[in-house]
Design goal:
mainly beta; five-stranded antiparallel sheet; 63 strands; 3 helices
Length: 801
């Protein structure tokens, strides 16, 4: 029997009051009924990209603005138009709009996994929302943590079926009838007759936790006319039909077999069925496991009794690795209007009779590539003939069209340059870096992201939108510490650099990195400038002594370099973390190929890649190395104080927690060790004896990269995430009175703001009190109070969001 784990949460607070507003925030585990003395807690503040502005000089990445991958979407059928939409993002959680995509709100930031693969609404009550965690094509971590259910439109959630779906990817959710839920996952197809409380295959209770049908279920569809008929697509087997609402799938009910004209050997399958003029036409896009093409498009006009191959004459579809991308849709008002999504999106209006060619493409220079979801407006919102409005989810976010792609509307939010603009913040960053050593330099943040190349946050936009620079799969980026307008990025297409911060409107990212013969390098800048280091899969460390213009090989290691740290106090000292679990160190890196290196084994460490290494900025003999758990080992963090002669296991309460990056903050005493994990950021203030979560309000997201500038006080820290863009750790943030002419400037380096003189800038202790706040729109993130307080809204509405 499955268990239900209640998880209740709310995101950033939006409070609207005409006369009175009372909010109490506590950071202690227990609260007295009289008053609360709470420590000052820094919180994480979203700085974008939200959204990503596409440079007009980069038409191959669409018109923008863009966001991260949208894996699935669902539209609330109530009302008369597509106002309420939910989207499933890759590692960014579930987001909701109530104004047709103009503004968005994240709804699952603190659930166990933000990797969402599927969404569905209960047909009897669209306020009941289901979200399936796990996305099989996630490039960082695909496993899920269960099925999420909300009964109030995504405001609060419970986690269902964790014992069944943990470590599975949920690919599709459908409800043939109210409360009757079918879950397609990489672990099989599961059925619940009580809204997800129990799953099973044994009637009448269906509570044994077993799948109705086994296999990797890649698609799941309810018949367009008969809701008791369900089709399940199974990797490697075909498409099975059920006539009893998914209670049984007979072995002989496979409608996609070689005997019926289907290919002999298939992998991933995605399916679509017509509705008008009848339900008899079916289309399939399938991965071909034999033959010259990777992908095939197939059609049946007799409910799957026989299939024919639709002619495809575009390599974009034929070589498409179906699964990561690949979708198919048929207009519910026109059985011949067929859409096929691969890297690009194609339309034919004759049911594929004339085949699919490059001329059939409808997204070129308009949308980002890689199609993941294709959903039509619900029948209750359709008022005219075909073509029916539809939505496509891509690696660049969400878009919609009412005219079969002749024109598109991007629905990733507003590009207005202010924080809290309601845009999607779902970029999948692999690494970030920042400008250092001054407030002006700190205004630059660069990021390398999956399928969105490199982007930059520049001082000409103080809000959360960022500027897209160079396309492809971004791998790493390094910023010149002496000039934040100069940065070097490595992508799957090569190495590029900019000298003007990726200025808007010009193709300012130029091919660079002479001497680097492959792609996807890790890039590192010497903290004193001039020298740049690059490391790739060839186990070679390259050095540039001319600001990254040209590189030469200086060292071949025993394994691939996973991370590198340069001592701030002496940039001739470099520590390198390798893929075999060892580290190497040199004290004369500037000697290039003549440098002397020492190979160091970490006693007790796992024989897995050193995912992060950090040398103490003030002491070159002290360093920390971190790992992701490997095999039976749960040790993930080690520290040395003697140049690696001995190591201390400092995993403590982080044992078994995957660690992705580490930095050391010299502005604390003792120096703080900060690590990025798969579920947030942790800090130790006692050399690793204990660890605590750092900051408040950071989503439960894969944190892949840390960038710190100790020249600020306290140190400026930003974290790059895989799915929720970039956050900055903000201290002492105080809400503001924008109408006060006497207000002083305050705030983080990234986002200065006005101090509200009459309230909230109060001592961190004392009795509960009233605080007056002028009417206005305070769009600067979650509320942080140092004690319980009552907020009084003066002179009208106060919005805090």
């Amino acid at each position: 029997m499955t268990t239900t784990q209640p998880t209740s949460w709310r995101g950033a607070v939006r409070a609207q009051c005409l006369t009175f507003l009372c909010i109490c925030f506590f950071f202690s585990s227990s609260v007295s009924s009289k008053s609360a003395d709470c420590p000052t807690v820094p919180f994480w503040f979203q700085i974008g990209p939200s959204p990503l502005i596409i440079n007009p000089a980069n038409p191959t990445d669409g018109q923008g603005p863009d966001s991260g991958m949208v894996r699935d979407l669902v539209i609330d059928p109530f009302g008369s138009s597509d106002q309420i939409i939910y989207i499933a993002t890759d590692s960014g959680g579930l987001w909701k709009t109530q104004d047709g995509g103009a503004t968005w709100v994240p709804k699952t930031d603190f659930l166990p996994s933000l990797n969402i693969g599927a969404i569905a609404l209960d047909p009897g009550n669209p306020s009941i929302v289901y979200a399936g965690s796990g996305n099989a094509e996630n490039q960082f971590a695909s496993s899920g943590a269960g099925l999420y259910k909300s009964s109030d439109g995504g405001e609060t959630w419970v986690v269902l079926g964790a014992s069944i779906f943990t470590n599975c990817a949920i690919n599709r959710l459908v409800l043939p009838a109210p409360n009757l839920l079918l879950v397609a996952s990489s672990c099989g197809c599961f059925r619940s007759i009580d809204g997800g409380q129990n799953f099973g295959s044994n009637p009448p209770l269906y509570n044994d936790g077993l799948p109705i049908i086994s296999g990797n279920i890649t698609d799941l569809d309810v018949d367009t006319a008969i809701p008791t008929t369900v089709y399940v697509s199974i990797w490697g087997f075909g498409i099975f039909s059920s006539t009893d609402s998914g209670a049984t799938f007979p072995a002989g009910a496979n409608i996609f077999t070689p005997a019926r004209g289907a290919p002999a050997s298939v992998g991933y399958i995605t399916f679509a069925q017509s509705k008008q003029p009848d339900r008899r036409t079916m289309y399939v896009v399938a991965q071909l496991l034999s033959g010259p093409a990777n992908t095939g498009v197939f059609k049946s006009v007799n409910l799957g009794l026989s299939w024919t191959n639709v002619s495809v004459n575009t390599s974009d579809i034929e070589v498409s690795p179906v699964g990561y991308w690949g979708t198919v849709g048929v207009d519910p008002q026109d059985a011949k209007r067929l859409y096929v999504g691969a890297r690009a999106l194609y339309l034919v209006t004759d049911g594929g009779v004339s085949g699919i060619t490059a001329a059939s493409r409808i997204d070129l220079s308009k949308l980002h590539a890689d199609q993941h979801a294709l959903v039509f407006s619900p029948p209750s919102h359709v008022t005219g003939p075909a073509p029916t409005r539809f939505y496509t989810g891509t690696d660049g976010g969400l878009a919609t069209t009412t005219n079969s792609g002749s024109s598109w509307t991007l629905l990733n939010g507003s590009s207005a340059c202010f924080f809290g603009n309601g845009s999607l913040a779902t970029i999948l960053f692999r690494k970030i870096d920042i400008g250092r050593y001054s407030t002006a330099n700190n205004l630059y943040t660069y990021g390398a992201a999956q399928d969105l190349g490199v982007s930059v946050h520049r001082p000409d936009c103080r809000g959360s939108p960022w500027l897209f620079g160079q396309g492809g799969d971004g791998n790493s980026v390094a910023v010149d510490p002496l000039d934040p307008r100069h940065a070097i990025v490595s992508t799957g297409d090569g190495t590029y650099s900019t000298t003007d911060g990726g200025a808007s409107g010009t193709p300012s990212w130029q091919q660079s990195g002479k001497g680097l013969t492959s792609v996807n390098f890790l890039m590192f800048y010497d903290p004193k400038g001039q020298f740049v280091y690059a490391a790739g899969s060839d186990n070679i460390l390259y050095q540039s002594a001319d600001n990254g213009n040209s590189f030469t090989a200086i060292r071949t290691f025993s394994a691939q370099v996973y991370d590198l740290s340069i001592a701030t106090i002496d940039s001739s000292t470099i520590w390198v973390g390798l893929g075999d679990g060892t580290v190497q160190r040199t004290a004369n890196a500037k000697a290039g190929s003549n440098a002397n290196w020492t190979s160091i084994a970490i006693a007790g460490g796992p024989r897995s890649p050193v995912t992060g290494i950090a040398v103490d900025p003030a002491n070159t003999s002290q360093a920390v190395a971190v790992f992701r758990p490997s095999g039976s080992s749960t040790r993930v963090a080690f520290r040395t104080v003697d140049n690696g002669a001995s190591w201390m296991d400092i995993s403590s309460n982080l044992r078994g927690v995957p660690l992705n990056a580490v930095v050391i903050d010299p502005n604390t005493s003792p120096h703080a060790i900060i690590v990025a994990t798969d579920t947030g950021v942790q800090r130790s203030m006692d050399f690793g004896a204990t660890w605590q979560p750092l900051g408040f309000a950071l989503p439960n997201v894969h944190c892949t990269s840390l960038a710190i500038d100790p020249s600020a006080t306290p140190s400026l820290l930003r974290v790059g995430t895989y799915g929720r863009s970039v956050f900055e750790l903000a201290y002492q943030r105080i809400y503001v009175d924008g109408n006060s002419t006497s207000a002083t400037q305050d705030g983080t380096l990234e986002n200065p703001f006005h101090t509200l003189l009459q309230g909230l800038n109060v001592p961190p202790s004392g009795a509960a009190r009233f605080v007056n706040i002028q009417s206005g729109d305070y769009a600067v993130g979650p509320i942080t109070l140092t004690q319980c307080a009552t907020l009084n809204a003066l002179n009208g509405v106060v919005r805090i969001h």
